[in-house]
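quick q for whoever's on today - can somebody do inverse folding on this one?? i tried earlier but teh output was garbage lol. tokens:
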């Protein structure tokens, strides 16, 4: 690890933390996530970077009890990522985080299709800036279903702030709030207006999600279930004839009619089709033409799912490639879980969860892009040293070096300084090839 570069990264991203001890422990925690092999418990992180007997307690205090705002940190992180990459899309992904007990904020029982079983879990919704090589998380929402959305006693016990964005309503509303927040955090014009890519069929109401994205004038590529009812648009781009179609039809049936060969496979839970097909459609109540795309692109992109997009003016090959970025979010979720402590949060509170996820995101971004020079001299963050987010107008090939060369020094209050021990670092790159997200297992729960 290039120690001066890492120090500069932490200083920039965590600049808005109001106290010096908070900034020092952000440095220690982020470094610990990068260099600690195996499980990322607070105790193991502290042992990796400090000889102090009180370091674990100080880190636990910093994450779970110290009052600091995570959104300004995420805004600076998003700016840092954009300066070192060329994002193509804002990808939304879902992380199932198994938990024990019923005290952790947002914990509930949920059926997980990948594993075919019901688990006790939290669900994190992540926003990722995606390039061809790196998919970096820059925003999170903790999904709060049912009682967690309305029960004041539950919310108070978990320290969910009154009026906290994205903490009420159905899943599609919480996803849209995340899109809004991530959009405000990305201030670089090069990343303004990125299409939203979301493979959330079975988690969110896709019709409501599409309607919300259209209302926000956000371009999008969203996976939809095969039984989604659409209206064929005979007058859409690339078609001919009258606007009126043949009446409502299921998405999979419309694509089957467009598919000369090979024939559409029998529908499955994943709505997988063979070959590729496309058609212009409309959804009731949504005033713009949309394109339905199914199967896999010529290069195998698209994931075999059925996608709905407002990119009706773009060639299907480009839309398939954009849809394929959704698999990068799944791959990054796996890396975050295996190498960066995504499932290692040991607390129960809402602020603690967001603090931990922000630190995990920072560690991943530096691991993936820390050795990548920005295309131009970096400008000072526009957010100010203690300011919040400003309103918005409108895989690196170099693998990271995980271990820093020197100590992370500093203390919280009277806590001793971090030591200069340099433990061995994990060797797997944050730009590993795409893999299927595994069935969640119970790990490091509270």
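ok took a stab at it. sequence:
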């Amino acid at each position: 690890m290039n120690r001066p570069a890492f120090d500069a990264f932490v200083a920039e991203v965590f600049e808005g933390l109001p106290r010096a001890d908070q900034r020092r422990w952000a440095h220690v925690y982020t470094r610990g996530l990068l260099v600690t092999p195996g499980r990322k418990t607070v105790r193991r992180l502290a042992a990796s970077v400090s000889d102090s007997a009180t370091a674990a307690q100080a880190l636990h205090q910093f994450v779970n009890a110290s009052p600091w705002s995570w959104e300004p940190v995420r805004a600076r992180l998003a700016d840092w990522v954009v300066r070192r990459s060329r994002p193509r899309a804002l990808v939304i992904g879902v992380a199932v985080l198994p938990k024990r007990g019923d005290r952790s904020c947002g914990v509930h029982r949920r059926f997980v299709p990948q594993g075919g079983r019901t688990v006790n879990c939290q669900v994190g919704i992540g926003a990722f800036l995606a390039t061809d090589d790196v998919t970096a998380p820059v925003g999170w929402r903790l999904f709060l279903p049912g009682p967690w959305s309305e029960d004041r006693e539950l919310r108070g016990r978990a320290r969910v702030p009154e009026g906290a964005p994205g903490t009420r309503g159905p899943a599609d509303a919480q996803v849209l709030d995340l899109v809004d927040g991530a959009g405000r955090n990305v201030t670089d014009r090069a990343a303004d207006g990125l299409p939203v890519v979301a493979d959330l069929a079975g988690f969110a109401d896709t019709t409501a999600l599409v309607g919300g994205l259209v209302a926000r004038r956000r371009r999008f590529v969203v996976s939809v279930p095969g039984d989604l009812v659409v209206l064929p648009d005979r007058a859409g781009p690339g078609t001919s004839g009258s606007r009126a179609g043949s009446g409502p039809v299921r998405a999979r049936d419309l694509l089957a009619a467009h598919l000369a060969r090979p024939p559409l496979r029998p529908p499955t839970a994943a709505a997988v089709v063979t070959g590729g097909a496309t058609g212009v459609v409309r959804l009731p109540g949504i005033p713009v033409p949309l394109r339905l795309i199914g199967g896999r692109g010529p290069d195998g992109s698209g994931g075999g799912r059925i996608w709905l997009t407002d990119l009706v003016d773009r060639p299907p090959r480009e839309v398939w490639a954009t849809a394929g970025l959704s698999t990068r979010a799944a791959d990054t979720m796996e890396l975050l879980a295996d190498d960066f402590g995504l499932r290692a949060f040991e607390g129960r509170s809402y602020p603690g969860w967001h603090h931990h996820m922000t630190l995990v995101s920072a560690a991943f971004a530096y691991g993936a892009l820390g050795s990548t020079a920005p295309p131009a001299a970096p400008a000072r963050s526009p957010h100010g040293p203690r300011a919040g987010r400003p309103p918005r107008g409108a895989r690196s090939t170099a693998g990271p070096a995980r271990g820093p060369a020197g100590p992370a020094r500093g203390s919280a209050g009277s806590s001793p300084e971090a030591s200069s021990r340099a433990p061995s670092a994990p060797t797997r790159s944050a730009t590993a090839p795409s893999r299927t997200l595994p069935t969640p297992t119970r790990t490091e729960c509270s």
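fwiw The radius of gyration is 22 Å. also The CA atoms of residues 88 and 131 lie 5 Å apart. so keep that in mind when u check it
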